[in-house]
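May I ask you to comment on the folded chain given beneath this request?
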Amino acid sequence: MNKNAFRQLSYGVYIVSTWDEGRATGCTANSAMQITSDPATIAVSINHGNYTNECIRKLGKFAVSVLGEHSDPGTIGVFGFKSGRDHNKFDEVKPEIRGYMPVISDACAYMVCEVIDKMETDTHTVFLGRVVDADILNQDDPMTYAYYHNVIKGKSPKAAPTYIPEETQAEAEASYVCSVCGYVYDGEIPFEELPEDYVCPVCKQPKSVFRKQ
């Protein structure tokens, strides 16, 4: 089976957020879709190992922030490569409260949902949510997953539904790769000549975590 065929499906880049006993938390997701328009219903897929999964189960609510092409790519790294169990992600990305839920302020749009059902797979929970609030935040083109891969040069977190282990093969062709998130540096300036305070544009880790391939 050629799993690259799945990349022909359409994906976006989203931040799914919720509350953890009064503390905002969330994770990066690429599988979110509208199920019905009336009543408006959204489905999101969250890995069993993600702390956000546990928090959504407890609260029964979640928000989906639709990232745009001009959203800070570092947001993807904060929410995709760090765990909410031991990291306050919204300390680095200040939330905007909409519909009593934390959302990403530089996203295109947001939707706030109440969980009405869920389905379990071997690795993920698909939460079905009734939309109770939604709005446009910024005029921007929604970021597609292809844009994230081809323009931002980001990789899928291992907990993502779209993660394919073969992605690591691309790293062999690169000069320098972030060992945390897999970002491939291919800028015009040689990596060795970048300033020492250079950080990965996706996960915000320092230059020292990059590895030459």
Confidence is low (pLDDT under 50) at residues 167-172.
